[in-house]
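Hey L., structure's done. Input below.
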Amino acid sequence: MAVSLDKTEKILFFLAVVAHPGTENAKVHNLVLAENDRRYDAHLEELDLQARAVEGGEMHIVIAGDRSAAYAAALNGATSEEMLDRWLGQQGV
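Output:
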């Protein structure tokens, strides 16, 4: 087996429940790493219920390089096109 020192950044797929994204009152209520997770549908159902229970709550897909970046993107309520393209490339799409 060959050893590689390649430090290619892995792009991660998160689901988030955010109240008032993109505003000064934005608050992340839940941030779940959902990549390669067999519970994806369960996460969707659970987070949808959470979003409905929170005033101004919305559920968002967030693609980021790490949890901190995902949190920041969730506050804004958007994933950049660049991150989406990188994630799709990582998935071989």
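The chain has a mean pLDDT of 89. Helices lie at 40-53, 67-76, 81-90.

-- N.
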